[in-house]
Design a protein that fits this description.
single chain, 197 residues, alpha+beta, Aminopeptidase, eight-stranded mixed β-sheet, 8 strands
Length: 197
């Protein structure tokens, strides 16, 4: 169950030991610019991530493969680059939402694209996803471009749905059925990272 390597990055299931790096990254105003849940105190960020990581650790210890999974992204020397997640969508069997946040030092190097491809491959091959979706705030060109690059399409908007710094923002909702995604890309990433044999 990992770690998995894709070109210049390694992905592994995140643990509580990764929380300080998560908090440092999410406390960077540039990273948090388009995140509706930041700025937030360290206690709130720890309170959000810790239960997810504890549940994930318990599943792994029991020999189960997490279908809601939080990953740490690092370079091949172990340097922290960011985090990503695949989340089973409640009340939508086969629905998987992907999400990602990257440390500023990793921007502009293709890290997000490779991470997004890995998350899609995990959703399809491990979670047996029927559809993949993701969202971002309107104006977040980097994330919306990446979601489109992964083959997701803009399915709708939620005007004023998210409140950040007292201002209401529109959320963009991307998604697509797996059957419409690039099967060759997903298979190549799954094979290269050894998600599948």
């Amino acid at each position: 169950m990992g770690p998995w390597t894709h070109e210049t990055e390694r992905y592994r299931y995140a643990t509580r030991e990764d929380l300080p790096a998560f908090v440092r990254m999410l406390s960077d105003p540039e990273v948090g610019r388009w995140l509706w849940f930041t700025p937030a105190p360290a206690e709130a960020l720890n309170g959000f991530f810790a239960p997810l990581l504890d549940q994930q650790a318990a599943q792994i210890a029991a020999g189960e493969t997490p279908h809601t999974a939080v990953f740490t992204v690092e370079d091949l020397e172990g340097g922290f680059l960011g985090q990503g997640a695949v989340v089973a969508v409640e009340a939508s069997p086969g629905g998987c939402e992907i999400g990602f946040q990257l440390a500023r030092e990793s921007w502009g190097r293709g890290v997000g694209t490779r991470l997004g491809k890995f998350l899609c491959a995990y959703a399809v091959n491990i979670c047996e996803a029927y559809r993949v979706e993701g969202g971002c705030l309107e104006g977040n060109v980097g994330s919306s471009t990446l979601l489109r690059k992964l083959g997701l399409t803009l399915e709708g908007t939620r005007p004023g749905y998210r409140v950040k710094d007292g201002v209401r923002h529109t959320e963009l909702c991307f998604g697509r059925e797996v059957s419409a995604l690039d099967a060759d890309m997903i298979r190549e990433v799954a094979e290269r990272t050894k998600l599948i044999g």
